[in-house]
């Protein structure tokens, strides 16, 4: 018949139940101590007494932190011994040593398990100071820091360097272990590490239970009154780390991992230190420290090496090692070997996979699930530098939600970064992803899906910018919808994705010829609005050979027509006229009278620039007759404005005012989508009114142009309006205001990279000389 519990057993049971309640339940007690929740549950219900050599020493340390007022227990040691006596369990009052309740020591042991550090450590000053603050502080908690970052960023180097600098402050030694969480070998098992550490601490593990819970408890008891630094390097996840944590604030814990280990932050108040890339200065300093005077002798080459290595410490150390072993080679020669992106990882490779970027990246890649690995490779297929989830969804044939989830897994593992909802990869990691994707049978299909997404989204965005402009129809239905639903969203998308669209146009694969010319075509309106001339010309020059290869005369004509406008905006009218004339011929060949007429207006603008006013007026008038005949009000308004400019240039100011006023009325009549044309007409009318001496009206016209320019996002028209206001102010004798307007105009033009900035600056210099005279 079982013995009834004595009063001390009941007091112990009740005290434990109150303590568990204070801690928040058995799960919380398990998280705080590492002792299983079933052990806590059995103890608080009085079913089993905690084991005196394994579980009780650790539980006792946690219980002593809880106020006696909450538990009703002032002396846990005395109560536990009395309860054991009532239960017939023999105990021995342990001597007050650090190893109370543990198997006997074989010898006094002070483990020093740190691996060798590096001879040169020239950076991470802020991180070293932060580790001092986190790990050397005092309190009733275990100080804990998790150093994270992408492969090759220098996590282990930082942890080992900091540890060696403070090793003398830990009288009872340092316990270090590479947990092999990210490497070519199998991850270290907690029981393997525990056995080794307990042996290092001088304990006889042959007398202990061999389960993880028991040995984890034994470790905490062994460390209870010791001052030991715990360094857990290369951790895979929280479950690998938790059994190795101490229970005393005397033993700070420094962990490195490619995973952010959020469970340690939540349950153990760990602080995460994310390592960023070295700065340019820190990178050059590291090369100088490792390579020597050659860095000072070849400064430009050293800076280029830093750029090619992406400021990644591991890559910089590989390059430095190559430079040291090849003393006869110049740094410029090393640069030449790394310039080709496709060979860069090969050049940074070596016989030891632990010491190369490719090896470091591969260890992370192998840990990915199949879905996340597919997204990693998809990023390698995309030629752009930054991207959102929609792009990856299109590449991978996924939903945007699934793409976000997988991308954030890559971010958590430091294979990608997320900034303001967009993602990017370090250049070397991106090259590794591209290397993996090259052998993928679906590469072309994935890129075609990316093109389809960009083409459809650009067309949708262009509809918001210029709703009345004719656009070629698209037969396909987009798999991923456009991420905007208004003008501002469309404009923001264009700004964000321009570099990616041009990068896609650089993919010179005949399979993408149709997509390339369409993509360039749908960006034309944005390019014209924002005067992004360089990207405009590059995208259309890349698209043109594909359109020719397709033998699609319509595609070629449109591409040449838009390329001509870009060349004109750059100031190369001769080249623009060549494109217009070829486009005009092609449009006539396919019977596209609308397209052919558009090229007439474009040619008229060039001839006006050349001061060939009669020819310009004839071409513009011919085009206007067509637009009015077929009812194209938008095109008519633009052409009438062109005629007004020609009349202004020839001094026919009354006719110019009449035509520009008519153009404004037609723009307003056309409704939404002609805000930029309203700004252009107001600026032209402002010039006419200035020439007529009607300064107040000219000022109002330019102010209206500024408002319209702001509404549509045309900083170019804003700049022209500011220039107009400056000329009005000068005409009225307000030279201070005039100079301010002129400077604002030049600054704005320089910001958008317009070549007109130099022309205006020269004009204003002439004005200033006149004022001084």
UniProtKB/TrEMBL annotation:
InterPro entries: NB-ARC, P-loop_NTPase, TPR-like_helical_dom_sf, TPR_rpt. It comes from the Bacteria. SUPFAM superfamilies: P-loop containing nucleoside triphosphate hydrolases, TPR-like. GO terms for molecular function: DNA binding. The keyword Membrane does not apply. Keywords: DNA-binding. Residues 133-293 form the NB-ARC domain. Pfam families: NB-ARC, TPR_12. PANTHER family: HTH-TYPE TRANSCRIPTIONAL REGULATOR RV0890C-RELATED, REGULATOR-RELATED. This is DNA-binding transcriptional activator of the SARP family. It comes from Kibdelosporangium persicum.
């Amino acid at each position: 018949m079982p013995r009834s519990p004595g009063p001390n057993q009941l007091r112990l049971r009740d005290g434990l139940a109150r303590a568990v309640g204070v801690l928040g339940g058995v799960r919380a007690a398990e998280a705080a101590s590492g002792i299983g929740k079933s052990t806590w549950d059995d103890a608080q219900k009085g079913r089993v007494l905690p084991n005196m050599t394994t579980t009780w020493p650790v539980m006792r340390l946690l219980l002593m932190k809880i106020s006696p007022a909450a538990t009703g227990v002032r002396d846990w040691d005395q109560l536990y011994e009395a309860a054991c006596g009532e239960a017939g369990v023999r105990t021995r009052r342990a001597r007050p040593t650090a190893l109370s309740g543990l198997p006997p020591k074989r010898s006094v042991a002070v483990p020093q398990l740190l691996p060798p550090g590096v001879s040169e450590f020239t950076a991470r000053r802020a991180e070293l100071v932060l580790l001092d603050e986190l790990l050397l502080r005092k309190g009733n908690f275990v100080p804990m820091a998790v150093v994270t970052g992408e492969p090759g960023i220098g996590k282990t180097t930082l942890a080992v360097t900091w540890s060696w600098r403070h090793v003398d402050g830990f009288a009872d030694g340092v316990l270090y272990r590479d947990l092999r969480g990210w490497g070519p070998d199998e991850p270290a098992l907690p029981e393997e590490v525990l056995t080794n550490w307990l042996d290092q601490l001088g304990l006889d593990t042959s007398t202990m239970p061999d389960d993880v819970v028991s040995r984890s408890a034994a470790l905490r008891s062994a460390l209870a009154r010791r001052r030991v630094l715990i360094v857990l390097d290369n951790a895979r996840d929280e479950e690998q780390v938790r059994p190795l944590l101490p229970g005393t604030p005397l033993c700070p814990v420094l962990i490195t991992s490619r995973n952010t280990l959020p469970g340690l932050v939540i349950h153990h108040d760990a602080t995460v230190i994310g390592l960023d890339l070295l700065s340019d200065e820190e990178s050059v300093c590291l090369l100088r420290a490792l390579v020597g005077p050659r860095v000072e002798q070849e400064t430009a080459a050293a800076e280029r090496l830093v750029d090619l290595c992406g400021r990644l410490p591991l890559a910089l150390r590989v390059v430095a090692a190559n430079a040291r072993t090849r003393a006869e080679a110049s740094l410029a020669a090393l640069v030449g070997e790394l310039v080709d992106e496709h060979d860069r990882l090969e050049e940074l490779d070596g016989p030891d996979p632990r010491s190369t970027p490719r090896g470091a990246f591969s260890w992370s890649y192998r840990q990915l699930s199949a879905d996340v690995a597919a997204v990693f490779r998809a990023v390698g297929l995309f030629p752009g530098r930054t991207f959102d989830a929609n792009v990856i969804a299109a590449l991978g044939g996924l939903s945007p939600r699934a793409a976000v989830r997988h991308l954030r897994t890559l971010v958590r593992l430091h294979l990608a970064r997320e900034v303001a909802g967009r993602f990017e990869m370090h250049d070397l990691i991106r090259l590794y992803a591209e290397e993996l994707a090259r052998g993928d049978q679906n590469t072309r299909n994935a890129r075609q899906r990316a093109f389809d997404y960009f083409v459809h989204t650009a067309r949708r965005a262009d509809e918001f910018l210029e709703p009345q402009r004719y656009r070629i129809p698209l037969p396909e239905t987009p798999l991923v919808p456009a991420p905007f639903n208004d003008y501002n969203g469309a404009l923001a998308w264009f700004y964000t994705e321009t570099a990616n669209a041009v990068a896609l146009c650089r993919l010179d694969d005949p399979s993408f010829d149709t997509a390339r010319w369409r993509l360039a075509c749908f960006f034309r309106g944005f390019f014209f609005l924002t005067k992004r001339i360089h990207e405009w010309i590059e995208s259309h020059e890349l698209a043109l050979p594909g359109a020719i290869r397709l033998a699609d005369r319509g595609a070629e004509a449109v591409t040449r027509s838009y390329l001509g406008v870009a060349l004109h905006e750059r100031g190369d009218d001769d080249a623009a006229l060549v494109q217009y004339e070829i486009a005009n011929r092609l449009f006539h060949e396919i019977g596209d009278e609308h397209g052919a007429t558009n090229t007439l207006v474009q040619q008229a603008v060039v001839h006006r620039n050349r001061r060939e006013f009669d020819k310009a007026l004839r071409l513009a008038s011919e085009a206007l007759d067509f637009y009015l005949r077929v009812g194209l009000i938008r095109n008519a308004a633009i052409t009438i404005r062109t005629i007004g400019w020609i009349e202004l240039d020839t001094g026919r100011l009354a006719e110019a005012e009449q035509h520009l006023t008519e153009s404004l009325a037609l723009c307003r009549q056309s409704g939404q989508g002609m805000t930029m044309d309203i700004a252009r007409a107001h600026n032209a009318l402002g010039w006419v009114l200035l020439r007529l001496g009607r300064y107040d009206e000219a000022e109002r016209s330019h102010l209206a142009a500024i408002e319209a320019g702001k509404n549509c996002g045309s900083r170019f028209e804003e700049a022209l309006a500011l220039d107009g206001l400056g000329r009005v102010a000068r005409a009225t004798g307000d030279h201070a205001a005039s100079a301010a307007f002129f400077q604002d105009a030049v600054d704005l033009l320089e910001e958008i990279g317009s070549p007109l900035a130099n022309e205006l600056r020269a004009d204003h210099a002439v004005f200033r000389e006149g004022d001084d005279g």
